[in-house]
Write a structure and sequence with these properties.
Length: 371
């Protein structure tokens, strides 16, 4: 099926047959002749599978990677029927991470090189359904590591500020510190970090992980976490000018605009393996309280009002970091954020105003409509 494989065939495959199965086969064939070591212009575009792609983070990353590697090389997957625009903008397939054979089939049939694992139940949803969170966030993650090991994939599993707990130093929180989270979401993420590191150490798996802050996005709604207010406040600013915040005014948490998050993910996946001095890195962009983001929004929406009605998510937020120390990511990975609080606020308001022209509704109605 394949020609006799020599390094020169591989180099020519990388040059002439970019994005073909042969090129990928060649890259994997030689030990010590990994994709990292091919000259950039000879590196075939990776075939990327994103699990849980219909959540808050998936489509932004798919769009960025499709611009880099071509629309056919980046495959979104999830277990739900996608909205029409998702099918129109690129390839979408069904992939249930709880079904190992289904995962194997997708990886083989699609010729996957990189697996970006976004399927999860977030912190608040996880507390509401612990058995399902254990299944998806722990058992599903085991399947992801196992299939990645079996097919020698480069795998990215994000972690979170939720992987820390009340005994962690909160300001700043270093990469290596006490991790005793009190949510099933956090427990599963610590487990994922440790399992990924273990598979790397034991089997040489190319596992990569960034601990994300709360992510804020205009195009996709948050999926049921403790930081969701930081996206919802913008929808309310544009529609009702009134936001009911489920956290106290002075609850400081690390946050990040989605474009920084997707760029960081692409950048860490693209780095040659030798650049990674550790497998799990904190990344940080900004930290603010509800009162501080409200004050910034009010500069643009003077009639904006806010009420504080803390709910069960307050107890979770009280155990999370206020500021992540991301010195190592900046040194080793070249990480740098582009969005601070003022830039976040102008960007979010501009995007949501453009989206909502002619529409009215609360954040809950808009999010329901978006789903
Ligand atoms: N959004 C954030 O603020 C944030 C912050 C830190 C880390 N993260 C991490 O980033 C990743 C993506 O987060 P998100 O906000 O996009 O999550 P999300 O909740 O918005 O989306 C998760 C997706 O997983 C899918 N899913 C559930 N069960 C599945 C199954 N059995 N098989 C396949 N897919 C399944 C859901 O349908 C959903 O589309 C998660 O691992 C999350 O922990 C997110
Ligand atoms: C912080 C993050 O992991 C997610 N947004 C949550 O709140 O659960």
């Amino acid at each position: 099926m394949f020609p006799a494989i020599t390094k020169s065939v591989c180099r020519s495959a990388g040059r002439d047959l970019q994005r073909t199965q042969l090129a990928r086969h060649c890259v994997r064939f030689f030990n010590g002749f990994s994709q990292d070591e091919l000259p950039v212009e000879e590196t075939p575009a990776p075939r990327v599978l994103i699990t849980g792609g219909l959540g808050q983070l998936g489509s932004g990353l798919a769009s960025l990677l499709r611009k880099k590697y071509g629309p056919d090389n980046v495959i979104m997957s999830d277990i739900v029927n996608p909205p029409r625009h998702v099918r129109e903008t690129g390839r979408y397939i069904f992939a249930d991470i709880l079904d190992f054979k289904n995962l194997q089939e997708k990886v083989v049939n699609e010729g996957i090189d990189w697996l970006i694992h976004f399927s999860a139940l977030l912190s608040a949803v996880g507390e509401a359904n612990v058995p399902l969170a254990i299944k998806v966030n722990i058992e599903g993650m085991h399947n992801i590591l196992e299939v990645s090991k079996q097919y020698k994939l480069r795998v990215f599993i994000p972690s979170t500020i939720g992987a820390f707990g009340p005994t962690t130093p909160r300001n700043p929180t270093p990469d290596l510190t006490i991790q005793r989270p009190q949510t099933i979401y956090g427990v599963a993420k610590v487990h994922a970090e440790l399992m990924g590191e273990y598979y790397h150490h034991k089997y040489g798996l190319d596992f990569r992980c960034l601990r994300f802050p709360g992510i804020i996005s205009a195009e996709t709604p948050p999926g049921g976490g403790t930081t969701d207010y930081s996206t919802e406040i913008f929808h309310d600013a544009v529609t009702t000018q009134r936001h009911e915040c489920f956290l106290e005014h002075d609850t400081r948490l690390p946050m990040m605009y989605i474009d920084d998050c997707t760029r960081a993910t692409a950048e860490v996946m693209e780095l040659p393996e030798h650049r990674l001095k550790q497998r799990v890195y904190n990344i940080q962009a900004m930290s603010f309280t509800p009162a501080e983001i409200y004050a910034e929004v009010k500069k643009h929406v003077p009639d904006m009002e806010i009420d504080y009605k803390p709910d069960s998510r307050q107890a979770i937020a009280d155990t999370w970091p206020q500021v992540l120390d991301d010195t190592n990511a900046r040194l080793d990975l070249g990480w740098n954020h582009e969005y601070d609080l003022p830039k976040l606020v102008t960007t979010m308001l501009t995007k949501i105003r453009a989206q909502k022209e002619g529409k009215q509704g609360t954040s809950a109605q808009i999010n329901a409509a978006a789903i």
